[in-house]
Design a protein that fits this description.
415 residues; alpha/beta; Cobalt-precorrin-4 Transmethylase, domain 1; five-stranded parallel β-sheet
Length: 415
């Protein structure tokens, strides 16, 4: 399926104009459009809203959702399947279910059961991509495939493939259970001796560095990283040549810091040979970087509180929430329904954790500046609805606010 054919679609299905009105209706927001027009700011009484300069749907997510809608439009009478979730946003995935898309979820080991898929069915590959072995199984099915894998993810795959081809172990900064990292690590299988090792954070990277320097125990190392390396991985052999890559949604500064520490360890172990034994390329996607940079810029003039909107299983949203929480009180909410205008409570996820909390009186008294941002899988309407609920919490009617602001900005008629 390497090339675009009548059974494999990677560049859309030629129906963008047909589906665009539906996408704007289901995912657009008048309030978000208003904030964009007003330098990402809106003052309403005591409330001052600030929206990050870069937020929400990125190009890759926008494209993936659009292609899914085009697939439904092009094949109205066929069964549509989706491998996992199109993106990590519950609202978007719910919309696809209502369109008749059947989701195929992986088992605990990340394996998909395609037994229900038949030749004339349509299978959508999500923005994260799928593992090489899953793609090969879909090829055997001879079904129609709509591949929405993000271009930034494909660039990481090329790096990992080049490492494996040249005999380097791909050291991947990412979450070993995340769909994207599973798909990325699988690319080493293109070569018989391809190897990978996944590290979650700097602490895990430091364990690798210690082993490179000769300070670790082999069995303890393998036990600790179980489930995070390729079959037959031998740290004594496979850490001799390393190429660093990363899940595209990780925090860029940490990925770069990990690469630097591994380089230092290689230099300590191999001296001048390290230049021939170590490779590194920044593979954080530009959209992830832009959203992280926008948060850093916003926090230079700290708002009183930050609200971060996006799926609780969204990696890039979780990282945005973590960045914000280091400076100001931050609430990571899945969508607007987490804000209750009647009780004044907010339901939110623990920062970089799993526990859910229900917090009363979260909005400070008096004049308050509310910073807003959203992960790359969050549509504008979920941001707009959050603003609406915060306005209602303060006793304001969102529709009236919108019309009053628009009215003040209309040019006055000549006298």
């Amino acid at each position: 399926m390497a090339n675009e054919t009548s059974r494999y679609f990677r560049k859309g299905l030629g129906l963008k104009e047909e589906v665009q009105p539906v996408l704007e209706s289901e995912y657009g927001s008048s309030l978000v459009s208003l904030l964009k027009e007003r330098d990402h700011r809106l003052d309403v009484g005591r409330l001052r809203f600030r929206l990050a300069e870069s937020f929400g749907f990125c190009y890759g997510v926008d494209r993936a959702v659009e292609y899914a809608y085009e697939a439904r439009e092009k094949f109205p009478d066929r069964r549509l399947f989706l491998v996992g979730e199109i993106i990590h946003n519950p609202y978007v995935n719910r919309q696809l279910r209502e369109m008749g898309v059947t989701f195929i979820y992986p088992d605990d080991r990340g394996r998909f059961d395609f037994s229900q898929v038949e030749d004339e069915d349509v299978v959508i590959v999500p923005a994260f991509g799928v593992r090489l072995e899953d793609f090969e199984r879909l090829e055997e099915k001879d079904c129609i495939v709509v591949d929405t894998t993000c271009g930034s993810v494909l660039l990481v795959w090329k790096r990992v493939e080049s490492y494996a081809e040249d005999g380097f172990t791909a050291l991947i900064h990412g979450k070993h259970y995340h769909e994207e990292t599973r798909a990325t690590s699988s690319r080493v299988r293109k070569w018989e001796d391809g190897t990978f090792l996944i590290v979650r954070d700097m602490d895990e990277a430091e364990r690798v560095c210690r082993y490179i320097r000769g300070e670790g125990d082999r069995e303890a190392f393998l036990d600790f990283f179980e489930g995070k390396y390729s079959e037959g991985f031998d740290p004594d052999e496979d850490l001799g040549r390393i190429g660093v890559a990363n899940q595209t949604t990780m925090v860029a500064s940490e990925s770069l810091a990990i690469a630097d520490r591994v380089r230092e360890a290689m230099e300590a172990r191999w001296g001048e040979e390290a230049d021939e034994r170590f490779r590194s390329f920044d593979t954080i996607c530009s959209a992830t970087q832009d959203r992280q940079d926008a948060v850093h810029e916003m926090l230079e003039d700290e708002p009183d509180v930050m609200v971060v909107i996006g799926g609780y299983n969204s990696s890039n949203t979780n990282h945005l929430a973590h960045l914000c929480s280091q400076r100001v009180p931050t609430f990571h909410i899945e969508d607007a329904t987490c804000v209750d205008p009647e009780t004044g409570r907010i339901s939110h996820k623990e920062i970089m954790g799993e526990e859910l909390h229900d917090t009363p009186d979260w909005l400070p008294e008096g004049e308050v500046e509310i910073g807003l941002t959203a992960g790359a899988s969050t549509p504008d309407n979920k941001i707009g609805e959050t603003i609406e609920r915060i306005l209602r919490l303060d006793g304001r009617d969102p529709g009236r606010v919108l019309s009053e602001v628009r009215g003040r900005e209309l040019p006055q008629a000549a006298g």
